[in-house]
Amino acid sequence: MYSVKSENLRSSPVPQPSRSLPFSLGIELDGAGAHPASLTQAGVSLSESLSSNYLAKQGRCADRAGLSYLTLEDAPTAPDGTGARLDAGVRAAYLAPHTGAIGLVPVADVVYAEPFHLQGQLASLDILSGGRAGWVVRAQEDALAAAAVSFVAAAGDEIPAEASEVVEVVRLLWDSWQDNAVVRDITRGAYFDRERLYHVRYEGTRFSLTGPAINPRPTQGHPVVFGRDGDLELEKLDAVLVSGEGTEKRVIDIRERAGDSTPVILELEVILDSRGEKAARRLAALDSHSPWESHRSRFVGSPSDLIDYLIDASDRVDGVRLLPAVLDLELPELENIVLPGLRRREAFTSPVRGKTLRETLGLHRPSNTFEVRASEQQERERDASPRSGGSEQLDSTDKREVTQS
Question: pLDDT band at residue 254, thresholds of 50, 70 and 90?
């Protein structure tokens, strides 16, 4: 027997997703686990849980298990309980050479961060990992972070619009280099061809930005952007995270607005039977130190029951992001029992080394926004001048400079 907090997708009327999208499984690897008292059952101290060796160990285990991607939680201020956390982007970059197939998806804030630096960090991660990068958009108000930054940050109802603008300009900066802009021409002493760069002048509601980026276009074109509907505009996302009360209705609504080509991913807290101790008993012991209070859906039960639950969920959503209570206990059960069980029942396929995260999730590689606009403009000019035979060309200003507002 097992219990699930919030709605059970097992009996849901949610329409089935398009099978053109593979079912994916992600895992959160922050700290010692998702439960605030995870250190009481983990085999490490606080300082060890923050070490690079511990991070590499868990990352290699998740990669070896065959999970689609891993996420790394982050926020502008330190988490409660531990009071310490390394930057998620730095942790993801550290894991790139320690892993081979699994996607690397840090959580990154958009309210208190600089978009220009954010895009560079994520683009560099994508290049370093060979196209395995993603990004969970964090768009939440934080009073301590607001007091620490040198500008008046967005607050309250302003945050979703701010988040949407940040994602928009980040994507524009990723596209400000053509895929073949890097030439490495030793004879000319040129690293890149400046004619293959686009200049961005972006005017947002609360910020402005001028490009191009100082880094090449990411391997995937755009790293995969994950986020929650309501935190920002749905069309800015590549994959949508859902959880908690009302999940079934939200899935239906998202599919109606975004269609079947946008993965809908359930966030699921997980605590499993482990080392001869029942999951419910383990949860009670953890909660006696610090209650696990969250809005997310939760699974409490055996690894075999989790296999059944995930197979049922695969008929309703396109993937599940697992948040294990204690990594040292849940991750071995996932690696040794759950993932092999899913593969035996042909309910899940692990990522292949050499493939990008977009390929793993069934997402196309996006075209360069500026190249598409230039092509459309050329077509309009050809249509307007049929006798020219399409010989007219855009001048350098029209082609290379894009103003967005």
Answer: very high
How far apart are the C-alpha atoms of 273 and 303, rounded to whole Å? Answer: 7
Tell me, what CATH number does 305's domain have?
3.20.20.30
Work out how many domains the chain is built from and give that number: 1
Count of other CB atoms within 10 angstroms of residue 303 = 20
What are the beta bridge partners of residue 272? 301
Q: What is the pTM of this model?
A: 0.90
In angstroms, the CA 134 to CA 47 distance is 27
Q: Which two tokens stand for residue 134?
A: 């993603």
In angstroms, the CA 192 to CA 159 distance is 37
Write the DSSP symbol of residue 157.
Answer: G
* Omega prior to 332 cis, within 30 of 0: no
Tokens for 228?
């929650």
- Whether residue 185 lies inside any domain: the answer is no
The pLDDT assigned to 400 comes to 46
Q: Is residue 316 part of a domain?
A: yes
E strand or H helix at 117, and its extent? helix 115-128
Q: What are phi and psi of 43, to 5 degrees?
A: -95, 25
Residue the block writes with tokens 């910020």:
207
Two tokens, residue 350 = 């692990």
Range of the domain at 306: 3-142+220-361
d(Cα 318, Cα 261) in Å, to the nearest integer? 10
Q: At how many degrees (to 10) do helices 52-65 and 88-95 cross?
A: 60
Predicted confidence (pLDDT) per residue in 31-67, tens digit: 999 999 999 999 899 999 999 999 999 999 999 999 9
Candidates 118, 69, 126, 70; CA nearest to 93 is 126
Residue whose C-alpha is closest to residue 172's, from 194, 204, 149: 204
